Amino acid sequence: MPQAGGSVKRVASTAVKSHISPMKLAPPLLLPVFVLLAASASAQDTGPAPVRRDPDIAKMISEISAERIERSIHILTSFTTRNTFSDPSPGGNGIGAARTWLRAEFERIAAASNGRLQVELDSFTQPRTSGIPRPVEIVNIVATLPGNQPAARDRVYVICGHYDSSASNPLDPDSPAPGADDDASGIAAVLELARVMSHYEFNATVVFLATAGEEQGHYGAAHWAAQTRAKKLELAGVFNNDTIGSTRGGDSTVDSSTVRLFAQGVPPAPGPGWRDLLATGGENDTPPRELARAVREAVALYLPAMNVKLIYRADRYLGDGDQMAFLENGAPAVRFTEPAADFRRRRQDVRVEKGTAYGDTADLINFAYVADVARVNAAALAVLACAPATPRLVEIEMTKSDNDTTLRWQANSEPDLAGYRIVWRDTTAPLWQHSLEVPKDTTRFTVSGVSKDNFVFGVEAVDAAGHASPAAYPRPAP
């Protein structure tokens, strides 16, 4: 079980565990606030949340290898095609052979983790639909790293990519479709994070998911997402990595320090609380948007040279990815993708026309950039899997008209909970601008002199090492 000072521990490759010394609490940052005993606070510009790096997370990020990522991409592109309808046999040169190799890689990683990483197949026959002309077997590869804290292990974070590929015709089972960028790059990142993160322990559970059937309509992701929903598993966050390999756009501009992060606002099927969200101006504070803000904050802390460009859409025009399947099943899901697309290389038959190359081949991949995007994922995943859960039943009291803001919430149950962080920003600001720490035994707090009418508020849960949950948007309470 994690000690009070830190939640990440590296596990030795032998049966004997080697525990990293827990990170010490930085008194100047948190203690002056945590010793507050009052149930209210004067209006102060506290600025952004305190900066506290976990050295174990920094070490984990440093272990991500561009060379291993390059190897994975070259192997995946060596199969003639990974089309959903291509040769399913393990010894062929289609999706079956690619799946066999990918499963073996996950199982090697599991063996190196002393069995802590658990690998299984999620196989089903997809019947004929508008995008599927005949029944076809679709197989997802699922590698699960169980959480080690009883209060958190049922909370699940997913990093995924899809291993199927497509030529110009997504139903073409024979034409070469190397799929280097779309989406060997994403799968290579998922594999690399499984390799590195499986040697560490986290409070919550992390799933490394390789899906199939994406090019015809994210069928594999939809099947797995529906299963998890039926099992009532708590999917707290899903990171879809799709086309994260190229830094050169169609106009030949190069950007190797930006990754786009698509985050949905309006859910596909608005639930009962959607009316309250709209009535209070909270349409920019849905769970996917709060997840995206948490990602950006983690990356700013551990990888300040990387620019996570938040895009307030579920995905690009004329395209979507596996995150849509999770969103449709009620889970907060976001998509990472490269800064700009060269559509001559995406889902195109491999060829050269008038001196211009077409097709998704490995020569367009910037392997160091893929490693950086993997590090972005790792930083955010590690923080979230260590942090307490997002506070529940967060409400803003509406009992009287005044210039204060009173918030209340349900207490978290994690043993390493250190307190809560109230955050707020201007209604027109994209990111949190102010924060205030309150003790862990607090479930109701008044921010004096800060009007609920003028700002958007949220409440985060924070552990003793400084890992923070995504914020919860408060619903109005009578």
Overall radius of gyration: 23 Å
Task: Tell me the span between the first and last alpha carbons.
Answer: 40 Å
Most strands sheet: 8 strands, mixed
**N-to-C SSE string, H for helix and E for strand:** EHEHHHEEEHEEHEEHHEHEEEHEEEEEEE
Q: Strand-residue fraction?
A: 15-25%
**Tally of separate helices:** 10
Number of domains: 2
According to DSSP, the number of beta strands is 20
Overall mean pLDDT stands at 88
Sheet with most strands: strand arrangement: 3-4-7-5-8-11-9-10
The helix-and-strand class reads alpha/beta
Which descriptors would you attach to this protein?
alpha/beta, Aminopeptidase, 2 domains, five-stranded mixed sheet
Write the layout of secondary structure elements.
Elements (H helix, E strand, L loop, with lengths): L8 E2 L16 H8 L5 E2 L13 H8 L3 H13 L16 H18 L5 E9 L9 E10 L9 E8 L17 H18 L2 E2 L3 E7 L7 H12 L3 E8 L16 E6 L10 H6 L7 H16 L4 E5 L11 H6 L4 E5 L13 E3 L2 E3 L8 H20 L8 E3 L7 E4 L8 E10 L7 E6 L4 E4 L7 E9 L11 E3 L1
